[in-house]
């Protein structure tokens, strides 16, 4: 199945902005995070198809994941 992964802010550093990956059926969001070497606790916003997602959520063909780190500033 094909999944689009969208990274934002510091998650893009040394990675990419947007990629499509071919993944096996039954893949969970946590599997993608592990492959990206992103600790789930470092993710402030996790969206699957624009809706709130969870690390344990099973992905389906055509899904897209958006990952946002905590944002700071002043």
UniProtKB/TrEMBL annotation:
One Pfam family, short name = ThiS
* CDD domains hit by this protein: Ubl_MoaD_like
Q: InterPro entries, per this entry?
A: Beta-grasp_dom_sf, Mopterin_synth/thiamin_S_b, ThiS/MoaD-like
Q: Which top-rank group of organisms is this from?
A: Bacteria
Protein name (Swiss-Prot/TrEMBL): Molybdopterin synthase sulfur carrier subunit
What's the source species for this entry? Carboxydothermus pertinax
């Amino acid at each position: 199945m094909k999944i689009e992964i969208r990274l934002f802010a510091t998650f893009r550093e040394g990675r990419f902005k947007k990629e499509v990956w071919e993944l096996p059926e039954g893949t969970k969001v946590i599997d993608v995070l592990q492959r990206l070497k992103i600790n789930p606790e470092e993710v402030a916003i996790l969206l699957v198809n624009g809706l709130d997602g969870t690390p344990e959520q099973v992905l389906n063909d055509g899904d897209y994941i958006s990952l946002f780190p905590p944002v700071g500033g002043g």
